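so the lab meeting is tmrw and i was supposed to have these ready like two days ago... anyway. pasting both below. for each one the top line is the aa sequence and the line under it is the structure tokens. i havent really looked at them closely yet so no promises
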Amino acid sequence: MYQGIAAAKINLVLDVQQRRTDGYHLLESVMQTLSLCDIVEVELAVKTSISCDLPNLSCGEDNLAWRAWTLLQQEFQLDAGLKITLHKQIPLAGGLAGGSSDAAQILLAVNTLFALNLSQEKMLTLAARLGADVPFCLLGGTALAKGVGDELQTLAPCPELRLVLVNPGFAVDTAAVYRQFDLLPPGQRRDGAAQAMAGAIAAGDPGRIAAGLYNNLEEPAFQLFPQLAALKEEMLRQNLIPLLCGSGGTIFGIAADKKRAAVAAANLTGKYPFVQAVTTKNYS
């Protein structure tokens, strides 16, 4: 049996740029894995099945983990099935790449269980066919992403940051946020935000990292979901430095230290369905 850690991720910087003719947007982003994770267990089986401990998550063929298996099964003519068990901790549709991280673990599991001996380059190419976040989730750690998320440059490990994650309990439609983004006037970007964040990480300076947080999907997401703007204001009042995770709906906030993260998490617990203090983490 294969057991893998499917880590959540945040974008310390998400700078969405122009829309390509195929509908995808170019971006520059600094991505970071977190201590929050799902556990993915995979066994060979006669028939493929997925089970999980979240009743509102589809365990059918539309699940990204199942799609990852189907991709490899067709690509390499694999005559078997998989029994996939997802132990979910990452909120659904929260901008934390839970589905993408689960799918990345399926790629690793199949490579191991079937002894495919695929190169990292081949694995990343396959991951990109599943979604923009899957290549990063395959590598983890700290990385600068360009293109549509498939051009990755490993960065120096991020110093440990104390974070509070808050999810308001409703799904955010990523496609709708991007459509709203396309309606905004051009020229709203902060040029060089990703490079500045990479420099702050290399310097190991948490203060510069917190000051450099940037996500230009916040404005369109807040226009569509004013509750998210209100949540960010509430996290500011808890002495956190908050930023929307991807297109939403989770918001993370950087705390000055472990104690202040714990206090903020305690104050927010009970007001929202998901509140958790976590840290940045680089898995080996």
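ok protien two:
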Amino acid sequence: MFTYDVSHSDLHREIYEQPELMKVCIEKNEENVKEIAKLVRERRISKVVLVGRGSSEHALIVGKYAFEVYTDAVASMCSPSVITRMNGKMNLGDCLVIGISQCGMAQDAYTVLEKCKNDGGIAVSITNERECLMRNAGTHYLNMEVEKEYSFTAGKSYMASTILVLLLVAYIAENESLLKSVHDMPSMIQKTLDSGMEENIAKAVTLFRNANDITILARGFSFAVAHETELKIMEASYTIAKTYSSCDYPHGPIATTRRFTPVIFYLTDKTTDESTLSLIQKLQNDFSISTLVVTNKEEYVSYGNEAILLPKEAEGIDAVCPLAVFSQLFCCILAFARGYNPDAPVGLSKVTVTL
């Protein structure tokens, strides 16, 4: 295991701030979320449109799964250019639209939210910055409440965005089990950080520090989080990463498998683990790949050359935050291992405006 100095890393510091900040995020937004959910139920809205870029979009992908698992709604990811550039004729009057931007300056998300409001729909804007373009967009506003984010790689804003969307789903669905899961997420983050994960990642990262590419394979809620893992790896360590569904990968992408491209597997959901396990065995047998298994089940640890064992409670929806913590710590440590500063990625700006 290599040594590294995190004393000046904003990303590393902010990862460990998350348990307390997520409690604040839930506490300060819960009453507003209840009101929005009540309105959605009263209007019997069953169409959800989700709009964001980067980490904001990835938080919404988790939300898409949750809406379709826990409510009767059909959820779709918005292509903002249909409205901002192509003068699309879609009517959002019978939709719930959720737009997320950490900085609140996303012109495209703002435009979609405003169209929803003008069409008569319910439009929810979520930002971290209060004085911003999106603050007054749409019909309702939620703030992430995670204080200023100094890290270029979104950590606490991604986590807060994800939790807020799941909190809204829980209240719309009136699902007590999901609501309990959301309320438990801050303690799940703390439990994950206290599990020795960072030390285990520092040991496992030797599989990846000299790799040109990394593949991530998962399914279900873990696949949703894997999109964020992919982004984190690329922006912090300049390593090309690609996420695939364990079910999609055999339908073509498997032909690109190479022995020296290590693979991260997420195994955190008994409803979807079987297909991922089968894929691990096939890739190990056919390509002799190096594997990192991230799981909450001790019996799966042996499937990897290296493994990260999450708290056993990190199952299904309850794995979302632990997997996000893994993503953040992994990209941070990999950046140090490759000799880069995760807080100074080349070519990135904290505020990126897309029209």
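from a quick look at the 2nd one: The radius of gyration is 20 Å. The chain has a mean pLDDT of 94. will dig more after coffe
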